Amino acid sequence: MQVTETTFDINKIRADFPVLDQKVNGKQLVYFDNAATTQKPKAVIEAIKTYYEGYNANIHRGLHTLAEKATTAFEETRKTFQQFVNANEVEEIIFTKGTTDSINLVAHAYGRKFFKSGDEILISGMEHHSNIVPWQLLCEATGAQLKVIPVKEDGSISLADVEDLITDKTKLVSVVYASNSLGTINPVKEIAALAHKADAVMMVDGAQAASHCNVDVQDLDCDFFATSGHKMYGPTGTGILYGKRALLEAMTPYQGGGEMIKNVSFEETTYNDIPYKFEAGTPNIADIVALKEAADYISALGKDNIMVYEQELTKHAHQVMAEVPGIKFYGTAEEKVSVVSFTLETVHPYDVGMMLDAKGIAVRTGHHCTQPLMDHFGIEGTIRASFSVYNTKEEITQLAEGLKDIVSKFG
C-alpha cells in the first residue's frame, strides 16, 4: 500500500500525542528530535496510570490477585515483542533498560565468557557510543582487538570492506541497523551472512529501526538484536534484547540477585532458565507493561505505511531545505530512515539549535553520541532534524523557512 500524507489521518494521529498540543516560546511546538526520543501516545500513558492505580504488585513470585494480574500483563509484553521482531520463541526476548543495557549485557555475558586475546570484534564507523564503548571495555578485559568498517562519503558502508575486514579471528560483528546521526540503513542481513560464514556472531543495534523499519530477526538471521522502548513511542528505561536460544543458554548471567536463580545456598547457586536468567531484581514493571501499547500502536498503523509516509517527509525535507543558503547535508545514502543531518556554512550548530527553539522548533545539535563519525567528516557536530509519524510536510517547510531566516539575519 502506497501511503502519503494525504491518506494518513494526521490530525487523528497527532491527537494521540498530548505533548504536541502546546506552545514553546509562544510558538506552536514542532518536534523534530525523534531520533533522541519519540513522544508517547495516550495509550502508553494510560497503561502506566492503570497499572499503578489498578494492580501495582511485584511479579512472578506472588500468588495473590494483583501479583498474578501484574505478571500476566508483564508477560503479555514479552509475547507482543516476540511477534514484533518475529523471534522464534518467546523465551528469546529479554527485558532490559534499553539498547545500551542490552549491548552491555552481551559484552559481559557472552564476550567475557568466550573472548580471548587475539580475537577480533568488528563494528562500523557510524556506531553510537553505546555500540563502541562496551566492546572497548571487553577488549581491555580480554585482549581482543576492535576493528572498524570505514564510512563512505555518502554515509554508507561497503559490503566489500566488511568482507575484507572479517577474518578467521573475528568472533563478533556488531553494526547499527539505522544510523542515529545519518539515517543510513545498513545491509545488516548481508553482513550477518558474511559474519556467519566466518563462524562469527552477529549483533544488530536496532534502536533507530524499531519505529521505522520492518524488523524480522529470523530473516536477518542475526544472533542478537537490541532496541529501546523510548525511541518507539514507549517509556524511557525500557527495551529488549533478542538472542538465539542456544547462545542465551550458553551465556553467564549479567547480574545476580532475585528472579535470576532457581536455588541458592552459601555453597552454590543454580541459575534460572532464560529469559529470567538475565532479569535480576524487580524490573520496571509499569513501563514494560506500557511498552506493549507502543508496539501495538506501531502495528496498528502498519510498519509499511509508516515507512512510506516517513520517506515522503524525508524527501520533502531534502527538497525544501536544499534552498537554504550554505546548507550541507551529511548522510545521503539511498537507503535511510527519516533523519536529516546538516550544517550551515555561516552559523554554528548550537546557535542554530537555540534560534530554532525560539521559533518553537525542537532539533538536536552536537555529535549525537557519534564522535568518531563526526571526526571522520572533520566537523564538531551537525544539526539533526528527525521525523516521526506525527510530523507533517508543513512543519518541515516551517523548519526550512526558519533556517533561511537565521541565515539572513546571522549568517
Automatic annotation (TrEMBL):
E.C. number: 2.8.1.7
Enzyme class of the recorded protein, top EC level: transferase
GO-annotated molecular function: cysteine desulfurase activity; pyridoxal phosphate binding
Needed cofactors: pyridoxal 5'-phosphate
Coiled coil residues, start to end: none
InterPro entries: Aminotrans_V_dom, Aminotrans_V_PyrdxlP_BS, Cys_dSase_SufS, Cysteine_dSase, PyrdxlP-dep_Trfase, PyrdxlP-dep_Trfase_major, PyrdxlP-dep_Trfase_small
Protein family per UniProt: Belongs to the class-V pyridoxal-phosphate-dependent aminotransferase family. Csd subfamily.
Protein name (Swiss-Prot/TrEMBL): Cysteine desulfurase
